[in-house]
Amino acid sequence: xxxxxxxxxxxxxxxxxxxxxxxxxxxxxxxxxxxxxxxxxxxxxxxxxxxxxxxxxxxxxxxxxxxxxxxxxxxxxxxxxxxxxxxxxxxxxxxxxxxxxxxxxxxxxxxxxxxxxxxxxxxxxxxxxxxxxxxxxxxxxxx
Length: 143
Ligand SMILES: [Zn+2]
Ligand SMILES: [Zn+2]
Fold this sequence. Notes:
CATH topology: Metal Binding Protein, Guanine Nucleotide Exchange Factor, Chain A
CATH class: Mainly Beta
Order of helices and strands: EEHEEEEEEE
Helix content: under 10%
Number of helices: 1
Radius of gyration: 15 Å
Structural class: mainly beta
Bound molecules: zinc ion
Number of domains: 1
Distance between the termini: 41 Å
CATH architecture: Beta Complex
């Protein structure tokens, strides 16, 4: 485990603001179909944090419950105003409140550039072209 770093996040509209302590080694990319649908992109990047370190400074994330590709029930929390995804976690029936791991969506974080993913999971549903974007022409703003 690496040294913990403080991460600072907020949703797009600013209703939800939080801080947490993250282990940068627990940064992952998830290629599961639920992440594709719910993020609207080919994959999602996540950092796992202990719920006890998650400090909600403002707002109240709205939960949505699903059964994951793993077969486990999952609680996904998002901003009810702007729709930004905040985190996914276990349901309290499986892991007691306060002891869960939260998979924070790294796009919300000021520290996103420092959270280099260490592994990619659910590669069976990976979108092939999403692995090879480095060779695409780069434009600094909109084309
Ligand atoms: Zn919002
Ligand atoms: Zn996923």
